[in-house]
Amino acid sequence: MRVPTPIPRQVLSDRLAALVDQGLLRRVAYQVPGQHQRSEYRLTDAGLALYPVLLALIDWGDAYLPVTEGRPLAVEHRGCGAEVRLEVRCADGHVLAPRVMAMRPGPGARRRSATGSSSS
Fold first, then answer.
1. 90-111 tens-digit pLDDT
2. 81 dihedral zone (left: phi>0; alpha: psi -120 to 50; beta)
3. Cα 87 to Cα 96: distance, rounded to the nearest angstrom
């Protein structure tokens, strides 16, 4: 299904090319009989790994930018049709809300000098 967009075609082409260059999408050629060859874009493993981020953005939009007519996009499990929900869990299985989580420096963190540049 083709959805009209106010974004100029060249901008979309540039953005798709950037996503391909970054390894999030791959271009796959296809051809409908009687028509010229075209490309479709499929998610790579790196692109698929962003699904939780996309689900979080959808949930945020539903909560903070609601549409009067209802959710503009519903995500469901193909196997049973149930709604997909995003949860954050700790390694012990507890479902977490943002206010009960803490971020701390990890093993790859670097100290910053007084000038703001990182040092080894």
1. 999 999 999 999 999 999 999 8
2. left
3. 8
Nearest to 39 by CA among 50, 30, 51: 30
* Mean of pLDDT over the chain: 91
Check: CB of residue 2 under 8 Å from CB of residue 12: no
CA distance 55 to 74: 10
Q: Is residue 43 within 8 Å of residue 24, measured between CB atoms?
A: yes
Beta bridge partner(s), residue 118: 112
SS3 for 29? Answer: strand
The amino acid at residue 117 is: S
For the stretch 42-63, pLDDT in tens is: 999 999 999 999 999 999 999 9
> Do residues 84 and 74 make contact, with C-beta atoms less than 8 angstroms apart?
no
Decide if pLDDT at 75 tops 70.
yes
Rg for the chain, CA atoms, rounded? 21
Instruction: Round to whole Å and give the CA distance between 20 and 42.
Output: 9
